[in-house]
Amino acid sequence: MIHMNMVTPPPDLAAISALQSKLVSALRPILPEHALLWEPEDTIPYECDGLAAYRRMPLAVALPETEEQVAQILKICFAMQIPVVPRGSGTGLSGGAMPISQGLVLSLAKLKKIVSIDSFTRTAVVQPGVRNLAISEAVAHLGLYYAPDPSSQIACSIGGNVNENSGGVHCLKYGLTLHNILRVRGVLMNGEIVEFGSLAPDSPGLDLLAIMMGSEGMLAVVTEVTVKLIAKPTLARVIMASFDDIEKGGNAVAAIIAAGIIPAGLEMMDKATTRAVEEFVHAGYDLDATAILLCESDGTPEEVAEEIARMTKVLEESGASGIQISKDEAERLKFWSGRKNAFPAAGRLAADYYCMDGTIPRRHIATLLKRIQGMEIKYGLGCLNVFHAGDGNMHPLILFNGADQDEWHRAEDFGTEILEACVELGGTITGEHGVGIEKINSMCIQFGEGERESFWGVKSAFDPEKLLNPDKAIPTLNRCAEYGRMRISGGKLPHPELERF
Amino acid sequence: MTSNKNNPVIKAFQEQILNAANSKQALSIQGGGTKSWYGNANQHAKLDTRSYSGILEYQPEELVITACAGTPLKEIEAALHEKNQVLAFEPPHFGADATFGGAITAGLAGPGRISIGNFRDFVLGARILDGKGQDLSFGGKVIKNVAGYDVSRLLPGSMGTLSLLLEASVKVLPKPAATATLRCQISQAQALKVLNEWAGQPLPLSASCWIGSATGGDGELTFRLAGAAAAVKTAIPLMSSLVLATEIDPQTAQTFWNDLREQKLNVFDHLGSEQTLYRLALPAACGPLNITNADPQIVLEWHGQQRWIKAPGDEATFEAIKKLASANGGHATRFKQGSNVDPSFQRFTLLSEQAHSKALELVQARLRSAFDPAGVFATSRLP
């Protein structure tokens, strides 16, 4: 995620305007007037998603209210060979919903009904535009909830979660979106309605539901989702442990897991982050600590008591310089408040920040943090480190001033070097934010030509004409060749004035 | 993944694949052959994975094990056991020679599946040879990874019809701190009701099995609790008082769950020569089912979501069972056939027989041909 402005130069206007009229007149008969936008003042809110640095205006935006309309829109675009970019709440952090200049944005925001809730089978059927948190709120009275909790859960939609395979703070124990979805109903690019998975524990044929998860809107448009609900734990408590050394903190994470404990949440913040958030939330964080670890246990009161005791012992043995255990729910939320406000706190420190999302094996956490310290000097930019330590998912926040083009380029190179380090340490360029448009070049580093060719094979199996969000997630051969040439020229970019995705 | 590209064993696999592609022959991938009876019959030449064996990387604190497909499953489980960890979905072996790769591509799971997930939920990455002999790696060794399509999760249950699995990284879990197994006499309908109610409460219910007569009356419900010692201890009186259950000793319990997973319980014995053991996968909402001509004795696992029924092996019976399963939102498989049942019978429910899946047949066919244009793995073992 980057907070700054960069506007794309407009392509051939006359051609676009002709195509726009054609598309709008084809869609008008099937959609109510308010469900089709094409005037720039109406479509401008759709020019980007949560990754605001990458913007483009679409031909039009369609906001269907029924699955039937979704299918008709796709049939029309298929016939006209117009690319379609599906969009949920637009909270994505990798530009996966960035429009295509000669394409349609298909917003699923109006499909926002909770279709049914079944407490006996612990399932809910929801439309794609339903917000993540709205599901848990709707079933709270039944003692149930939907487990995956991405930090944007107030706003992000379940359809978007399916397409990003979203994680969250609790996925170490409760799994990713993938583990909490039973069935997805969707529409293929040619307008055919299909169902992936079912309410049964498995389905005939290859596991196509698995490949739909995290497919970044490129395989089918989601129109309905059946989610798994689980029993709400009766209690949660969190331990806040301080470490005077980043290595000790990293080792404590490994030690907890090695002791056979799967915490409900296991998060870490470095000193720079702790200072930034303390100023913001006044949670009483230990400002002398080099690293702060938040380690949560949930379950029945007996279970939590037992686990907290075991966790405390491991943390003490790992050399924690201070340990505090939340006494009540208010204190638990206070301990968490800093971690949850790391992003806004970063926003107070610098004009802009760039959030990375690489994942590495847990044992390399300290190694990566030390390398990032070196990069701060190399690029002359500060960096806050907050991360899901339990699953090695790092979120370095690179601080910069977007008004300064040179700072932005340094921030971008800083980010790329972090991602390369993640791949080198045996990890991945994205743990939960997706590739989208942002990390598409880094895909050339993580995967070879054969793998990328296979990804295109998967794409073509669902969408042979490559019309559904075709410019995202999977780089073309040409793009990787171009990127390779660009990287060879000693870090100096040939045309710094050109936009680079 | 890890191993070098010049490994002679992999080179030999590549040659076998390319030769098969050139001569338009399909290859039937096989490990220890312990599940060769599962899936559609085929007479294709074998590709034996066992020459590519060994654990490549296992660091308990990462909760991930990476191993070659030909590694004996028991070797994997022994390595995990030493560090107090497990494959929590308890994949069945069906014989001493079961391999890691065979277990993954069969995609079967044992009693723990209902509370913990199935094999695909735990696969993090895979190295494969595609039908062109290309050495490809997908996913990785970390729990959170959304770079590229999740190709490695297509492999569990693919029955060797997509590619040759070389190596896989699988998430492992610590053994639960405590377990307890309880047993009671209860009707099928009551069992289905109480299990689903418990599953919706913060209780450490980890597995269940009801064995009894489909025609009515009480059967034997065995259920397992697993989790923090305190959670299990508190749950035992609470749950047992509801169904008048008694705890059974840990050794007997372990044998029971193991025998259930391996289908060594008496109830699985004596499959008639004209009979088939059907597997029904059903939604939680599905109540007791009645199948004409079936043996009255049935087995329900996964809180009723996996059911085992012995019935005549003919096409008409399978049709009727498929219809019944499908009407209830599930599907049926001819899991094991008696000696006189036609081996050429289709063992699985087809996509075209399921609501809203017809269009996926084409998607699946294209997907297979993307990985395997010459049809080297097109054994039809899985339709």
* Alpha carbon gap, first and last residue of chain A: 13 Å
Number of strands of chain B: 17
User: Rg of chain B from C-alpha positions?
Assistant: 21 Å
Give the structural class of chain A.
alpha+beta
Mean of pLDDT of chain A: 92
Summarize the structure in words.
- The complex is a heterodimer of chains A (501) and B (383).
- Chain A has helices at 13-27, 40-43, 67-80, 132-139, 158-164, 171-174, 208-212, 246-258, 271-281, 301-317, 329-340, 342-349, 365-379, 405-424, 443-446, 449-462, 477-488; strands spanning 36-37, 60-62, 84-87, 104-107, 114-118, 123-126, 144-145, 181-187, 193-197, 221-228, 230-231, 235-243, 265-270, 291-299, 322-325, 352-355, 383-388, 393-400.
- Chain A is of the alpha+beta class.
- In chain A, strands 15-12-14-13-17-18-16 form a seven-stranded antiparallel sheet, sandwiched between helices.
- In chain A, a hairpin with a 5-residue loop joins β8 and β9 (193-197).
- Residues 3-8 and 488-501 of chain A have low confidence and may be disordered.
- With 383 residues, chain B is an alpha+beta fold.
- Chain B has three domains: 8-174, Uridine Diphospho-n-acetylenolpyruvylglucosamine Reductase, domain 3 (2-Layer Sandwich); 178-261, Alpha-Beta Plaits (2-Layer Sandwich), CATH 3.30.70.2190; 266-349, Alpha-Beta Plaits (2-Layer Sandwich), CATH 3.30.70.
- Chain B is 28% helix and 26% strand.
- Chain B has ten helices and 17 strands.
- Chains A and B meet through β9, α7, α8, α10 and α16 of A and β7, β9, α6, α7 and α10 of B.
Keyword list:
heterodimer; A: alpha+beta; Uridine Diphospho-n-acetylenolpyruvylglucosamine Reductase, domain 2; Uridine Diphospho-n-acetylenolpyruvylglucosamine Reductase, domain 3; Alpha-Beta Plaits; five-stranded antiparallel β-sheet; 17 helices; 18 strands; 37% helix; globular; disordered C terminus; B: alpha+beta; 3 domains
